[in-house]
């Protein structure tokens, strides 16, 4: 039971799911219980800090708030130290070295097909210039290769990584966790914050392909633009996805 709560904060809300903060508890409301199932199981398997599950009553999952603050936000300078970014890279490496979750990940063919459809939508609807889309689609090709599956978070945005000082205190939002490409997690973590890529790589260690990480920057920005627009987010904000695509030119 939660008592002495002064207010309810809407953290994120759209027509698929919503997250509310009530005191020291986050309430995640998701109509797709498959995502919630994955989140709970992935957090139990992950060898890095994750939020404590307080209770679950579908469609609501209650998670304890993590100590510290997010590593940063897309479109804003990060105030976290280089050591904190390196710690995030080390946490990603620990995760990627762990045994794979038992459910399947997405195939290269599936990702490529979705990417092509999103590129066509961007051009057909005049959202972005055709030459910008074509150029970034060409860059993205480097990510569409066979990879050795790793235990990936699947949405390792810097807002999902919490740090206190130079240490990672926990990682949020595991609903996309699956076997996948380790470089995708590193690309998601550093999207729009290329200045911290060296720190993340230093913490991660070996087996990093910088060209593939940059390819995933283009691919993620192209593939996610329509979803962002349709769910009330703005990929054209300074420092966000469209600026990432322009920086590749």
UniProtKB/TrEMBL annotation:
The name on file for this protein is: Phosphotransferase
Give the residue spans that cross the bilayer.
none
InterPro entries reported in the protein's UniProt record: AGP_Transferase, Aminoglycoside_PTrfase, Kinase-like_dom_sf
Coiled-coil spans are none
Q: Where is the Aminoglycoside phosphotransferase domain?
A: 40-206
Record Pfam families: APH
